[in-house]
Every structure is written in C-alpha cells, then in structure tokens.
Design a protein that fits this description.
Helix content: 25-40%
Strand order of the largest sheet: 1-2
Structural class: alpha+beta
Number of strands: 2
Order of helices and strands: HHEE
Amino acid sequence: MRTRSKGRSCAGKRRYEGEPSADKAIRELVAAKRVTPGSMHSYQCRFCDGWHIGHTRHGGRRPQ
C-alpha cells in the first residue's frame, strides 16, 4: 500500500466541513451530469480533518 503525503492528499482539493456537505457536492455534480452516479465518494482526510470527494475505485465500492 502506498503512503500518501499531505501535499498529494490535500493539494488542489476542495475541503468540505463535513460529510453532508461533501455528499451534497457529489449530488450536485451528478445532477449537472458532470459525473455518473456511483463514480464519486466522500472521505475524511487524515491530514486536514476536513472532507474531500474523490473518484470511486474497486468496482464502485468505497475504498477502505
């Protein structure tokens, strides 16, 4: 497993205050047809303690 640095994990990414706001951003992207349903997920960042959104991997399941 690769170890991520803070720069790679947070640089250039929008920080959301909580999971609900990150999930809302995903719903808005889906509604605008910028991403397909199930292609994005929200996750809590271990570096900034905020929430980010990212592309789902592993056949549509959330990465662990």
